[in-house]
Specification:
Blueprint lengths: L5 H4 L2 H33 L2 H37 L3 H36 L4 H16 L1 H16 L4 H24 L3 H28 L13 H33 L3 H17 L1 H19 L3 H28 L1 H6 L8 H15 L2 H17 L3 H25 L2 H24 L10
Helix pairs in contact: 2-3, 2-7, 2-8, 2-10, 2-11, 2-12, 3-4, 3-5, 3-6, 3-9, 3-10, 3-11, 4-5, 4-6, 4-9, 5-8, 6-8, 7-8, 9-10, 9-16, 10-14, 11-12, 11-15, 12-14, 12-15, 14-17, 15-17, 16-17
């Protein structure tokens, strides 16, 4: 087996793009996977059911982003050990965080089951959708450990430079989820409960398959003696990176959750439209987030291999990738907004929802490159384990989004909620870029 990563040996720009591409396609399938519930429920059940799933989505996304952020943060260790060809430590890193995050997922599932009705009420969820939203979340949290571990395992594959494996698994699980959604919602008439059950089963099967593949893959890396399955020193080192990474990955979802109470005050129709726009945003930002995550792995592997200059070259090349994706997304959001929003809400039967969704999507579509610049700069800092300023920048981002939405939308209208989005992205990028320019990140190699 070839154990030397292309991220360390091939031309930085080409290596980054080829590594990011399966992640982008895979994450798009992940979004289609999540969107299937909204599209199928919205069209087969109705506007209130769509609003209920939308109200649940911003809550559940926080938990998935915890998994993704934790996996990316902890996998920095794995990537650096791989770059340094220290395979025994690499395996211990993988095993340590699989055990840790499985335990965390159990605790979060219990918390979600107990707390979700109170949180939905705190967010001022409209009464006419409260019952369906609670039902959806109760089923969802029963399967949270499977979903959590699936995302952790995907981060492990990416850390090893095997981004094609999560892609194949996502295609499989997405198709399975859509088939089961149509059967349970359309055929069995289970409504939002059917959508939740379909999602849990599809990701549960994928999680089990992912674990089997990863354990077999580990056998291909030669070591002297058996790698310890749990190391507290690795847990501590990885946690210092994982916590800020969790915060960064959760910024969008936490921001959506905290600002949802501001949206809710405009009624369930506005919430349905905002949910549609948010789902479209989550699709469009996939190339930006995936490229940032690719830069993180690229940075970690090259710092582990002692190739600091390659990191700078890769970072510069990643700007071209982001600008290219940003231009395409501007065209889509400005020219094709009507058919894509109509996939969620019907313009004639839900005019308020449609107007809200199109207004949100068209505005933020102009600024997706801001998020991309932030993501790749954060990726360098995260991959190097340089987390202090990284965390501050992302907290400032969150603070701007929540403050503007909560304070300004009651005065100037719902549009203030999305005006805050590029403001947060832009300030986050400027803070991270200024810190990147200091070169401090070059001194944060964990495996030295």
């Amino acid at each position: 087996m070839k154990t030397k990563s292309a991220l360390v040996t091939e031309a930085p720009g080409r290596a980054l793009f080829l590594f990011a591409l399966p992640m982008i396609v895979g994450n798009l399938f992940q979004q289609f996977y999540n969107m299937a519930d909204s599209i199928i429920v919205g069209n087969l059940v109705g506007e209130d059911a769509l609003a209920a799933v939308g109200a649940s989505y911003s809550f559940t996304t926080v938990f998935i982003m915890i998994a993704i952020g934790g996996g990316i943060g902890a996998s920095v260790l794995t990537s650096q050990y791989l770059g340094a060809e220290r395979y025994k430590e690499m395996k211990s890193s993988v095993y340590t965080f699989l055990i840790t995050f499985f335990a965390v997922s159990i605790l979060l599932a219990v918390f979600g089951l107990i707390a979700n009705p109170a949180i939905l009420r705190l967010l001022k969820t409209p009464d006419n959708i409260m019952g369906d939203a609670v039902l959806y979340l109760q089923i969802y949290f029963m399967g949270l450990p499977f979903m959590f571990m699936y995302n952790i395992l995907s981060s492990d594959f990416n850390a090893l430079g095997k981004s094609n494996i999560p892609l194949g698994l996502l295609i499989f699980s997405s198709i399975l989820n859509i088939i089961m959604d149509l059967w349970m919602v359309g055929g069995l008439k289970l409504g939002v409960a059917g959508a939740a059950i379909a999602t849990v089963i599809a990701q549960g099967i994928s999680a089990v398959i992912s674990l089997v593949i990863l354990l077999r893959l580990m056998k291909n890396y030669p070591t002297e003696g058996r790698a310890p399955v749990f190391r507290r020193d690795m847990l501590w080192a990885g946690t210092k990176i994982a916590i800020p990474s969790i915060i960064q990955q959760s910024i969008v979802s936490i921001g959506m959750l905290l600002t949802q109470s501001a949206v809710n005050q405009f009624g369930s129709s506005a919430l349905a439209g905002f949910s549609a726009g948010s789902r479209l945003e989550s699709i469009c930002i996939v190339p930006m987030i995936a490229t940032g995550n690719a830069v993180s792995t690229f940075t970690a592997q090259n710092l582990g291999a002692g190739k600091t200059e390659r990191v700078s070259r890769g970072y510069r090349a990643s700007y071209g990738i982001i600008i290219g994706f940003g231009a395409v997304l501007i065209l889509i959001s400005q020219l094709f907004y009507r058919p894509v929003v109509s996939a969620f809400v019907n313009e004639s039967s839900s005019p308020v929802a449609f107007q809200t969704g199109t207004a949100y999507f068209r505005f933020v579509g102009i600024f997706f490159s801001f998020l991309g610049f932030k993501a790749i700069t954060d990726g360098v800092l995260r991959g190097a384990g340089d987390m202090k300023v990284y965390m501050i920048a992302n907290l400032v981002n969150l603070g701007i989004r929540v403050a503007v939405a909560q304070l300004c939308s009651p005065i100037w209208g719902i549009s203030m909620i999305w005006y805050a989005v590029p403001m947060g992205w832009g300030v986050n990028y400027l803070i991270s870029w200024c810190w990147y320019r200091t070169g401090h990140w070059k001194k944060k190699v964990l495996t030295a």
